[in-house]
Amino acid sequence: MLAEVLIFVPSVARFREDYLLQRLERAQLASLALLADDMLSPELERELLDNADVLNVVLRRDEVRQLILSSPIPGHIDATYDLRDASGWVLIRDAMMRLLDSQQRIIRVIGEPVREGGELIEVTLDSAPLRTAMIDYGLRILALSAIISSLTAALLFFAVRAILVKPIKTVVASMQRYAEAPEDARRIITPTAGVRELREAEDALASMQTELTAALRQKDRLAQLGVAVSKISHDLRNILTSAQLFTDRLEDSDDPLVKRMAPKLVNSITRAVTLCETTLAFGRVEEPTPAMSRVNLAQFVSDVIDSERLAAGEHDLSFSEDIPATFTLRADPEQLYRVLSNLVRNARQAIVATGEPGEICLSAGEDDDAWWITVTDTGPGLPPRAQEHLFKPFQGGARKGGSGLGLVISQELIRGHGGVLDLRHTGPGGTQFMIRLPKDHASLAA
């Protein structure tokens, strides 16, 4: 519509100017007859005015202004228009005013004679024929514009259909085919669009489909791995149960070392049996609810440190604890042991891998709302990839060959207590994890 206005308005203004200039030219030609013969009959003068389509003609020649042709004027002159130096905006304004004014008016038009036929020519004419001619011309312009617009719309329709609609339909069809079998990598869309925005959308869709297919494949492998782990855990549980029966007899040995180590061995095998049972439950998507009880944290930390000190062997690794002997909290003993064991084991493996001396410190405290436990080491810190996928299975392993399941399991167990397991800081100076366990039952229930 804006294009229609920009075409229509100047065109009508130009038509009005040409119309008036033609009347001036005809009037000048009519006046030549009088200049050639001073005596004209009234009939011939009237015919000349009718042919020029004007009422009066005034010509200025040789510094003399002379009424050349005249006829009775039916009314007073309403407006005067000088075409000699009129600007485009003035011509457009006058044309629109004449087009909108339906009253019959007498106007005076001033212009320059053609071929230097004088200094000025002035005519008086009726505006009604001018308005009628402008309306007729405007209608022709509108009809032509409508035809051009229709042709443009048709071309635009086919262009949009070929450039946009067809590629979009191709993308939609590709998405539907992919949805039928997202595991099939052959159904991932191949970007072919020529339009930049559509090409970017296809690239994004292809990237998303590729990641989704990889995730589905990984999930399928994890499901198969879960079945295998469940089978292994089932058989391992039976083996460990038999071993547990044999270790019970070690307590009757007279060897002081055996008597001291036998309870720890029995506890380790018991925890291994419990781990197998919980693994089987996890494979059935049945995570056991924590069996909450009062736990002496110092005793648990001592057992964890003794186990990890043996695992460290002769490596220069020291363990320390800052836990009061009477410090107790409410938690599931087996699950809390697994969490602390996972965190200390990760710290020990990180330090041993560097070949440098190190220290692992466990501390605990409490406030009005929660108990907290920190595990701090002087290891090399977690690599960027491990930090990015810290609590994601099979992605957050900090060492080569690690599965990253330890932190995932630990976080899930602490979450089952209503608590939070967070990485406080990591870097070349070491790493610290914190466990917060709520004291109120409402948080635990939530």
Automatic annotation (TrEMBL):
GO terms for molecular function: ATP binding; phosphorelay sensor kinase activity. Keywords: ATP-binding, Coiled coil, Kinase, Membrane, Nucleotide-binding, Phosphoprotein, Transferase, Transmembrane, Transmembrane helix, Two-component regulatory system. It is an enzyme of class 2 (transferase). Residues 231-441 form the Histidine kinase domain. Its EC number is 2.7.13.3. It comes from the Bacteria. It catalyses: ATP + protein L-histidine = ADP + protein N-phospho-L-histidine. PROSITE patterns: HIS_KIN. Residues 198-225 form a coiled coil. This is histidine kinase.
